Amino acid sequence: MAHTEPRFHVPAPHVRPGDTPDFSHIAIPPAGEAKRPATDVAGMETRDLALGLVRVLDHNHQAVGEWDPKLDPDVLREGLRHMVLTRVFDDRMLKLQRQGKMSFYMKSTGEEAVSVAGAMAMQNSDMVFPSYRQQGILFARGRDIVDMMCHCISNSRDNLKGRQLPVHYAWAEGKFFSISGNLATQLPQAVGYAMACEYRGDGEIAATWIGDGSTAEGDFHGALVLASTYRAPVIVNVVNNQWAISTFQGIAAGEAPTFAYKGMGYGLASLRIDGNDFLAVYAATQWAAERARAGHGATVIEHFTYRADAHSTSDDPSGYRPKGENEIWPLGDPVERLKQHLIGLGEWDEERHAALEKDLNEMVIASYKEAETHGTLHDGPLSPVESIFEDVYAEPDWRLRRQRQDLGV
Amino acid sequence: MAKMNMIQALNSGLDNMMERDPDVISFGEDAGYFGGVFRVTANLQTKYGLDRSFDAPINEAAIMGMAIGMAAKGLKPVAEIQFADYIFPGLDQIVSEMSRLRYRSAGQFTAPVVVRSPCGGGIRGGQTHSMSPEAFFTQVPGVQVVMPSNPYDAKGLLIAAIESPDPVIFFEPKRLYNGPFEGHSGGALSSWGKHPKGEVPEDYYSLPIGKAEVVREGSAITIVTYGTLVLVAQAAAEKAGIDAEVIDLKTLVPYDLETIARSVNKTGRCIVAQEAPRTSGFAAELAAQVQEECFYALEAPIQRVTGWDTPYPHAHEWAYFPGPDRFINAMNAVLEA
To answer: Tens digit of pLDDT for each residue in A142-193?
Structure first.
């Protein structure tokens, strides 16, 4: 017999399937209101920023306030292109997954600004330790799209030799660390890497991304302890997209007022920002990168955003949240907002946008055709089967040599 | 040559490598200023500075993760886990990350970390300071697993581990830190100074990972073991007057099957021994492999000498520890079969 009243507290979202989507409980402070402190500010002095919400683009799509990074229109157009490409790529890959061309896919719809603006505000020589929804970084850093697709369909040109699930990219040349799939493990690694940057004195820094749900992992705590203790030049991005598969953010947040506020417990500079605002993400990352490079340590950035689509192709959100939530997300859509900002500046128009979408769509379709010439998951060619015994160790030992013989390859 | 105990030998190996290679750094809980609870990292901070020998917060997962990140950048971290019993919070970082980074990135990223950790019982450590968890790590493709049994090997193998392009889990049998141990709980502590393997060069040298050594030649029976039990097995054979050949495995992954098979094919009898609990221990792997390789040479079933399938008890630790009498019983059983 179920008790109608729970005997201990279990947080629950405001609405569930069948309810009317409603975000009226989320307080959205006006754009331009947040102060931008000097990058050498003591971590604890960012308390208001950890509790507030850094926003640059206002409801009229104008850039306002101290956090406006005042970017050149060329940079804004480049950012828009990367975001549109990310979305077009994701949409195409979803279709291909539904056609059985790949085993699995994860879109980043609605979160394109988090990864694209974050990557653009760093140096390409800075190492990134992403989670699985930051493919926008790859576009921003210029990864070959055919290569990305070859990985996703695990064919003979997959640079990971078919060893990883789709979207679990690794690209050393682009300083894009290997995505694990186990959650939060990349955080202490990013801190260690950042410490090694300082040790080498090469001026590089590291950045990492984690979801709201994974902040509950011990590695989040451990990484923040390390980052604080050793004042590591690292940016810890918490992508609060409200949902960890089917679990709403409150299950990880508990009584914490924001995810950024968790950084306060470690004395770290902590910012909560509008993750759907390209300029806010750019400005916050730029601030944190400058702080890190100057030796003032780590920054925790909570990107307040919304996972507009399913967690993955294995997920159906209609089972746990109302339909249409993303359409009323109070912070809008990151692509649309940057587009309108550029239009407002007189640096873009609907025709050019439509042409960009068309061009990128055609490019993605053509790229997939090319990717398939290197093989498909079902019909091959794949990487040679004997490659399963490679890269376990620098050199295979006698056990692996024997086992390869046992497999007959 | 100098006379060194295992602590001094390990310290000397770290010293040599930190001297030679500025990318080698050492850290762990109490491993910086104080030099480690067992003093293995003593004086390294004074000699090489705070950023090359430092104290870590008490978070083994963070220590492992930090080491992986550093190694990915090209440093050669030697991370101490204060007791092998404490390694489990760091297991995800070892099993899912360190070991597989080369594989899952198809060689683009690697994490050649050395994880040093004192293991084993016989020091009245109770259930949280006595474990021998090596078998867990032998189940993890991508890491090498090493356990020396004396100062000379400890230094040479630690240097090899630091130079290895692969991650190495380096277990140090702490019962042997200060002297050889023959398994008699009440006996006086003997000194490495009187043992030939306590003669250790002060300069750099390395010993090959993956190479076992016949430490006692014999023709009646082969005992394959590693760590503390290497000395116990030798003492037991002496005491019983049995012509046993004792193999010190030194490396568990990849283990030296050739040396084992050569010996068993000669003696026709085999005991495999470990201090860890019996079920699914590394001795089980050795027994399986020996019967695959040497079945037609075997004249008796392979026997295991192991700890019991219990946690390591405190008051009754000598009832748990596989001492000389358990070896003698096993040898008699194999010889009589």
So the answer is: 999 999 999 999 999 999 999 999 999 999 999 999 999 999 999 999 999 9
Q: In what order do the strands lie in the sheet with B213-216?
A: B213-216, B244-248, B221-225, B270-277, B303-307
Q: Indicate yes or no: CB of B97 within 8 angstroms of CB of A185.
A: yes
Q: What is the mean pLDDT of residues A39-53?
A: 98
Predicted structure pTM score: 0.98
The residue type at B15: D
Per residue in B82-138, pLDDT (tens digit) is: 999 999 999 999 999 999 999 999 999 999 999 999 999 999 999 999 999 999 999
Residues B224 and B184 placed together within one structural domain of the fold: no
CA–chain centroid gap for B108, Å, is 30
| DSSP per position, A98-166 | HTTSSS-----TT-HHHHHHHHHTS-TTSEEE--TT-THHHHHTT--HHHHHHHHTT-TT-TTTT-S-T
Nearest C-alpha of chain B: how many angstroms from A13? 31
CB A49 within 8 A of CB A260: yes
Domain end: B200, B224, B242, which one? B200
**Can you tell me the distance from the alpha carbon of B163 to that of B158, in angstroms, rounded to the nearest whole number?**
9
**pLDDT given at position A365:** 98
Angstroms from A204 CA to nearest CA on chain B: 11
CA distance A125 to chain B (A): 12
d(CA A48, CA A51): 5
Instruction: State the distance between the two ends of chain B, measured CA to CA, in whole angstroms.
Output: 45
Nearest 5 degrees, angle CA B22-CA B23-CA B24?
Answer: 90
The CA-based dihedral angle spanning residues A68, A71, A75, A80, taken in that order and rounded to the nearest 10 degrees: 30
pLDDT digits (tens, 9 = 90+) for B206-221: 999 999 999 999 999 9
Q: Tell which residue, A205, A199, A210, has the closest CA to residue A300.
A: A210
Return the bridge partners of A300, or none. Answer: A236, A270
* Count of pairs with CB atoms under 8 A, one residue in A, one in B: 143
Q: What is the CATH number of the domain that holds B311?
A: 3.40.50.920
In contact, B84 and B133? CB cutoff 8 Å: yes
pLDDT tens digits, A264-278: 999 999 999 999 999
pLDDT of residue B187: 62
Measured between alpha carbons, how far is A341 from A274 in angstroms, rounded to an integer?
A: 15
Here the tokens at position A95 are: 């279709």
Instruction: Write out the residue range of the structural domain in which residue A390 sits.
Output: 384-409
Whether A3 has a pLDDT exceeding 80, the answer reads: no
Cβ atoms of residues A342 and A69 within 8 Å: no
Q: Is B195 a catalytic residue?
A: no
Whether the predicted pLDDT of A2 surpasses 70: no
DSSP three-state, residue A371: helix
Residue type, A6: P
Residue B95 located in a structural domain: yes
In a domain, A35, yes or no: no
Structural domain ending residue among the three candidates B200, B226, B243: B200
- Residues of B in CB contact (< 8 Å) with A are 25, 51, 57, 59, 61-62, 64-75, 77, 89, 92-93, 96-97, 101-110, 141-142, 144, 164-166, 210, 253-254, 257
Distance of CA B251 to the CA centre of its chain: 7
DSSP letters of B115-132? EEEEE--SSS-GGGS---
User: What does the pLDDT average to over B147-159?
Assistant: 98
What DSSP line would sit under B143-155, residue for residue?
-EEE---SHHHHH
- Which token pair is B222? 């082969």
pLDDT reported for residue A343: 98
Report yes or no: B192 and B179 within 8 Å, Cβ to Cβ: yes
